[in-house]
Amino acid sequence: MCHSLEPGRNKLGPSLFGVLDRRAGTVAGFNYSSANKNSGLVWTRETLDAYLADPQKMVPGTLMVFPGIKNGGDRQALVEFLASQHD
């Protein structure tokens, strides 16, 4: 509902296509919060896992309204799925 897996198709959140190894806050055409733009994060498996566990803790001031995924297995499955979404 909030994100797309289509390249260049932003919704309420940015497209997650090709997210692995992408610098946070850099999808063209998406208006990021300064917290995300200035986070200095690169979306690796580890940073995605930490962010998905608790977005507000990982990036204080993010506009992503999501409580996080507490189950580590569920997060890992999502991270691996996102990692598979690329050219």
Explain what the structure shows.
This protein is an all-alpha fold and 87 residues long. The chain has a single domain, classed as Cytochrome Bc1 Complex, Chain D, domain 2 (Orthogonal Bundle), CATH 1.10.760.10. The protein contains 4 helices and no strands. Helix 2 packs across helix 4. The longest helix has 12 residues, at 72-83. The model has no long low-confidence stretch (mean pLDDT 96). This is Cytochrome c domain-containing protein. Keywords: Electron transport, Heme, Iron, Metal-binding, Transport. It comes from Bradyrhizobium denitrificans. Residues 1-86 form the Cytochrome c domain.
What is the topology?
Elements: H1 34-37, H2 45-53, H3 55-58, H4 72-83
> How many discrete domains?
1
CATH class category label: Mainly Alpha
Helix content: 25-40%
Number of strands: 0
CATH architecture: Orthogonal Bundle
First and last CA, distance: 22 Å
- Give the overall form: globular
> Low-confidence parts lasting 5 or more residues at pLDDT below 50?
none
Quick summary:
The protein is mainly alpha-helical. It contains four helices and no strands.
Keywords, separated by commas or semicolons:
single chain; 87 residues; mainly alpha; Cytochrome Bc1 Complex, Chain D, domain 2; globular
